[in-house]
Amino acid sequence: MSQETSNHALIEEASKLIENDDAVFFIGAGMVKGAYPDWTGLREKILEFFKDNNHKINENELSEYSVSEPLNYFEYFKGQNANLYLKFLKNTFIPAATSRNLRLSSLIRSKCTKFITTNYDLTIERECQQIIPGEFDIKFYPESYLFTNEGKREIIHLHGLIDDRMSVNIDDIVLHYSAYKKAYIEHGKILTNAIIHFLGAHNLIFVGTSFSEPIIQRVFQIFIEKTRKLKTSRYLLHPYSEDKNKDRYEDEERLRQYGVKTIRFERINERFEGLDRILEHLCNESPFPKATIYDVSENNLVGGIQ
């Protein structure tokens, strides 16, 4: 075995933490992929929404915002019409009452009691309600962003929560630039300190997310600089790719610097069934997946189909 721990061993390692309720799932937008638009789709949808609501948009001004600046892009629309911007967010992120996300089922049925998400919607809660009705607390920035009840299921929305049953302060939804600045840089760096706390206090399993955002990268850098000896573990579930380009190499090198262990899964198809099978195994719902799994240390395929 090489210097890197095998994919199989990492799966077993993380699975034991889950079984002992000694891990926290950190859930990103990838876990609700298809139900909600990605950054590119969101940009297109908000432009269309404003036009459909007869709001004139200066295309020349808008063209100044590149694809790499989504925070400023949404800041522009919030500045144009805050009420219409909020209406767009509610129309986009409030799920239908009948919507289900079976991908989350394995996580919710597991012995983990703590979940963190940067998602704005109630998809996790709706799935919880289907499986274990009433047995969870919902917390969200800025009202509450830390776990408080040991042994009870808690879901923290780090970037705020959009729900039609509550009053929503648009600057508490961390999507546009000024909201990010408020949460991570100003006012005591609330979310910067919260994530640093989570990194130091809990074994985290990141799923449906990445570390591409500069603000999140900075939080990790601060954590690593402050913490000489890491007592907790971090895992990232990530699709295997044969892409050897420079950006991919730099991303993986950054993860190693952050002490993040990467558990690979095969795409299998556009629905990412490889991820589903990995989650089932991690949460002790199935034996080692028969789906193709890439072993990063031995450079071969293990676990079944080859």
- The percentage of residues in β strands lies in 5-15%
- Profile the largest sheet: 7 strands, parallel
Shape: globular
Q: For the record, what CATH class of the largest domain applies? A: Alpha Beta
CATH architecture of the largest domain: 3-Layer(aba) Sandwich
Mean pLDDT: 81
Global structural class: alpha/beta
List the uncertain runs: 288-306
Our measurement of the CA-to-CA distance between the termini, rounded to an integer number of angstroms, reads 20 Å
What is the strand arrangement across the widest sheet? 3-4-2-1-5-6-7
DSSP helical segment count: 12
CATH homologous group name of the largest domain: TPP-binding domain
Order of SSEs: HEHHHHHEHEEHHEHEHEHEE
Distinctive features:
alpha/beta, Rossmann fold, 7-stranded parallel beta sheet, two-stranded antiparallel sheet, 12 helices, 40% helix, globular
Nutshell version of this structure?
The protein is α/β, with parallel strands linked by helices.
Q: What does this molecule look like?
A:
- There is one protein chain.
- With 306 residues, the protein is α/β, with parallel strands linked by helices.
- The chain has two domains: 7-34 and 101-302, Rossmann fold; 40-93, no CATH class.
- The protein has twelve helices and nine strands.
- It has helices spanning 7-19, 39-52, 59-62, 70-80, 82-93, 105-109, 123-131, 177-184, 190-201, 214-226, 246-257, 273-282; strands at 24-27, 114-117, 136-140, 153-157, 204-207, 234-239, 260-265, 293-295, 300-302.
- A seven-stranded parallel beta sheet has the order 3-4-2-1-5-6-7.
- Strand 5, helix 10 (214-226) and strand 6 form a beta-alpha-beta unit.
- Residues 288-306 have low confidence and may be disordered.
